[in-house]
Design brief:
With about 500 residues, the protein is of the alpha+beta class. Helices cover about 30% and strands about 15% of the residues. The structure holds protoporphyrin IX containing FE. Its cofactor is heme.
């Protein structure tokens, strides 16, 4: 006992026993005055908070962003100036599975980064793919419903997924990536990260550049096949946690090279005229030939959290967290996300989620949001509790005003999908695949389509046909082979 801290109640009073309930006689009933027993049971009942509505299963660690190059002509952000080192937190995740899901499942991976910069937190909440399934936030909740459990069967539904995808051909690019060799990373350390959206950078002269962020893994871009994943999950459901946590504990710190693609503000219009794609369409990449990768620096993860719940489960990433020199873009999806994340955190964690240690900026914070649950750590001047005031409260700083967007259009619900090109970028990707990669793509899709009604399968094959007839033909052949090998699993066609 001498060298160990004394056990106390949560109010700090020393505790005489943590072994036996207080009862009337050895076998008697428990007393209401055994308040610490009641406390203990009541605390247990409150140990869980809602899991994230998407990206519930995650793995995370702290690290450092080091800027090794000079990109100061694009941005005034202090964290992106040459030589700057910034403490950061990363959280990786799968999208569809619940908190207890296995790690090695075919799914898109989240790639969330929180940079604790001297000008406030900058969060880049991206994925391991440069594009996404849908281009409009209107579609996001519906899309996610197709990835989650069917209301009646409480199982995931291949029919719902392919029904939605085949009715939303803007998903083709992301579906092709997901079903390809790149759809199931070996570990978080073996995947690239992308900001995915178009963001902007702006410099001291008020010039804006559209930008895409890329993080290229130095551990090798490595993926599992479906067959390998079955074996991996059979042995352990927690392989990502084991690998990421274990590697950092062993001093093997994973690293990524950070790059940007840059487009001058007014070039977006020209880009659209030239390619037929909007520079703000999240289902499209910018060709690297026209917009080469520009190196910024390197990211290293080098410290495991001590408390997974407090530091990873309660971490709260907001695409709306930007700092002077970094801005948004007209990307509809990004705009939708600017509302969605802080709203999710207020519900999931609480009003003052940003005063939790993991989310807290490492620079001074001064605002006029008041009261609510647990506003801890906010030291305010008691007389300056409104603004404007004459009592020395914090005031705005016009020098950090972002330049206005010059690239804009008319307000309205524009039919931007009419004549949209959903096919040429997945075609470019498919063309790059060799015979083995194509074969695995076909088989992954055929497996994922097991049980899907033939009308939906045919609709989807129609889209593959428009990408490349060989794509449709390959999937059709793989579906027939899958049905033959798995008569009981009944593919769509076998089910007829
Ligand atoms: C309009 C579209 C979208 C909406 C409404 C949306 C909404 C959400 C919500 C509500 C969460 C849970 C947040 C929490 O409880 O902590 C979440 C998590 C996440 N989303 Fe999205 N999302 C959208 C699109 C995207 C896109 C396009 C990406 C990537 C490019 C993305 C990446 C992520 C990641 C990485 C997380 C997990 C964050 C973490 O690690 O805590 N989401 N999303």
């Amino acid at each position: 006992m001498a060298d160990r801290p004394r056990l106390t109640t949560s109010a700090g009073a020393p505790l005489a026993s943590n072994q036996n309930s207080k009862t009337v006689g050895a076998n008697g009933p428990v007393l209401l005055e055994d308040y610490q027993l009641i406390e203990k049971l009541a605390h247990q009942n409150r140990e869980r908070i809602p899991e994230r509505v998407v990206h519930a299963k995650g793995w995370g660690a702290y690290g450092t962003l080091t800027v090794t190059e000079d990109v100061s002509k694009y941005t005034r952000a202090k964290a992106l100036q040459p030589g700057t080192k910034t403490e950061m937190l990363a959280r990786f995740s799968t999208v569809a599975g619940e908190q207890g899901a296995a790690d090695a499942e075919r799914d898109v991976r989240g790639f969330s980064l929180k940079f604790y910069t001297e000008e406030g937190n900058w969060d880049l909440v991206g994925n391991n793919t440069p594009v996404f399934f849908v281009a409009d936030p209107y579609k996001f909740p519906d899309f996610i419903h197709t990835q989650k459990r069917h209301p009646r069967t409480n199982m995931r539904s291949a029919t719902a997924m392919w029904d939605f995808w085949s009715l939303c051909p803007e998903s083709l690019h992301q579906v092709t990536i997901l079903m390809s060799d790149r759809g199931l990373p070996v570990s978080p350390m073996h995947m690239n990260g992308y900001g995915s959206h178009t963001f902007s950078l702006w410099n001291d002269a008020g010039e804006r550049y559209w930008v895409k962020f890329h993080f290229k893994t130095r551990q090798g871009h490595k993926h599992l096949t479906n067959e390998e994943a079955v074996e991996v999950v059979g042995n352990s459901r927690e392989t990502y946690q084991e690998q990421l946590f274990g590697s950092i504990e062993d001093g093997q710190f994973p690293k990524w090279d950070m790059y940007i693609q840059v487009m001058p503000e007014m070039e977006a219009e020209e880009f659209e005229k030239k390619t037929g794609w909007s520079a703000f369409d999240l289902t499209k990449v910018w060709p690297h030939g026209d917009y080469p990768l520009i190196k910024v620096g390197e990211l290293e993860l080098n410290r495991n959290p001590d408390n997974y719940f407090a530091e990873i489960e309660q971490s709260a990433f907001n695409p709306s967290n930007v700092v002077p020199g970094i801005g948004f873009s007209p990307d509809k999806m990004l705009q939708g996300r600017l509302f969605s994340y802080p709203d999710a955190h207020r519900y999931r964690i609480g009003t003052h989620y940003e005063s939790l240690e993991v989310n807290k900026p490492r620079c001074p914070v001064a605002h006029y949001h008041r009261d609510g649950t647990m506003p801890f750590g906010l030291k305010t001047n008691p007389d300056a509790y409104y603004e404007p005031n004459s009592f020395g409260g914090p005031v705005e700083d016009p020098s950090v005003e972002e330049p206005p967007h010059r690239y804009a259009g008319q307000v309205g619900r524009h039919e931007y999908r009419a004549n949209a090109d959903h096919y040429s970028q997945p075609r470019a990707l498919f063309t790059m695949f060799d015979a083995g990669q194509r074969d695995r793509l076909f088989r992954n899709i055929a497996g994922a389509m097991a049980g899907v009604p033939s009308e939906i399968v045919e609709r989807q094959l129609g889209h593959f046909e428009k990408i490349d007839p060989a794509y449709a033909e390959g999937v059709r052949t793989a579906i027939a082979a899958h049905a033959e090998d798995n008569p009981s699993a009944s593919t769509s066609h076998a089910a007829e």
